[in-house]
Amino acid sequence: xxxxxxxxxxxxxxxxxxxxxxxxxxxxxxxxxxxxxxxxxxxxxxxxxxxxxxxxxxxxxxxxxxxxxxxxxxxxxxxxxxxxxxxxxxxxxxxxxxxxxxxxxxxxxxxxxxxxxxxxxxxxxxxxxxxxxxxxxxxxxxxxxxxxxxxxxxxxxxxxxxxxxx
Amino acid sequence: xxxxxxxxxxxxxxxxxxxxxxxxxxxxxxxxxxxxxxxxxxxxxxxxxxxxxxxxxxxxxxxxxxxxxxxxxxxxxxxxxxxxxxxxxxxxxxxxxxxxxxxxxxxxxxxxxxxxxxxxxxxxxxxxxxxxxxxxxxxxxxxxxxxxxxxxxxxxxxxxxxxxxxxxxxxxxxxxxxxxxxxxxxxxxxxxxxxxxxxxxxxxxxxxxxxxxxxxxxxxxxxxxxxxxxxxxxxxxxxxxxxxxxxxxxxxxxxxxxxxxxxxxxxxxxxxxxxxxxxxxxxxxxxxxxxxxxxxxxxxxxxxxxxxxxxxxxxxxxxxxxxxxxxxxxxxxxxxxxxxxxxxxxx
Lengths: 166, 347
Fold this sequence. Notes:
The complex is a heterodimer of chains A (166) and B (347).
Chain A: H1 8-143, H2 147-162
Chain B: H1 2-20, H2 32-40, E1 45-51, E2 54-59, E3 61-66, E4 69-74, E5 88-90, E6 100-104, E7 107-109, E8 112-113, H3 118-143, H4 153-174, H5 178-200, H6 214-230, H7 234-241, H8 247-251, H9 254-294, H10 300-343
Antiparallel strand pairs in B: 1-2, 3-4, 3-8, 5-6, 6-7
């Protein structure tokens, strides 16, 4: 049957035509297309990896930033606390020193006053003694114009001197 | 919706075209068998249609080496009934029916015939289409040599087709060596696919029965057989000549014999499958078309209703053939890939 017998002429043309087209496509078309598809596939792969890495990096940066902010916040609080404490301390110290100084000054003033008072009293006592001696001597001079009185006084003074301890 | 209308209109246009291609006027008895066989068989001329009893024919070159040397001439010198050119004529009956013969010593003799027949031209046309499609697509890549270039339009379509065949058939079936065989398998797939599709378009220069021609499918099957056996691995040949079976099966070379027969049956199955499927598709569509013309003399009612029925069936068959066009190309490529992949084992 005609339909089932292969014909040599057609086979000849098929071989030539298919061979030529196959050669041209295998040389100029398929390598170009396959290469660029493959290259693009690789490129997309690396880009995806890069994007994934970037995502991770961004997340870590975000966490880092948050950490930095939290640290700063904590530091701020502690600095403020420190500042308040040192302020309190300075004020307290100043108050203390002022108090001390004040009490020292007061004490000194008191002491000085005492000393002055003592000196005044001492000098006053001296003056009084001088005055008393002067008065006594005046009195004595008047009384000692006679011998009897003189002797009597000697006795008294002598008694006094000896009986001072009595 | 548009597609459906387009299909109806197309087939309404095509039906008389195909029918009149039989070359018979209304007055003559219409022979469906002759008309279908004429389409399925190869011919020296490309008959497009008949118009008002006048055949519209594209003559094709006849290239023949007879006992008197080479003869190259147009087919219209020889294709009319009874015409003889340079001692050559077309046999109307006998062993060489519809082939160019010469009379040598009173006996019909077939000269060496490498005429560009209708099927050869159809094959060359679809190979040209395939080549242009891929070269245009490849040019798009070459022109924009960027690593992130994503093609649009034709190149995008071709890339999608190539990638889907590569990823679903060639890579998994051939294995790690796929790069070496991809050009052949892709060329084979697209040649068969484009040829099948062009075979469904009944307008010149498409519409020839190319993949439904045994020579074409024989050629494709031989190509696959060569690809399988020329690049087969040591393991593949060991499996053929010294397979892993009990020695008594090899002592009388039973298994090797079966394996060697297998080398030829595989491509034979490829050849017959493609040939039979496409041939059957063409015959069915043409036969359905013939219903319209067979019923012409049965009155307007029968003829009208049968025309509607035939048209509906033809629409259905054309849709089915669209599927078959892809499926047969796919199956051929897949089986070729599997055979190549099996011969690559142990590489």
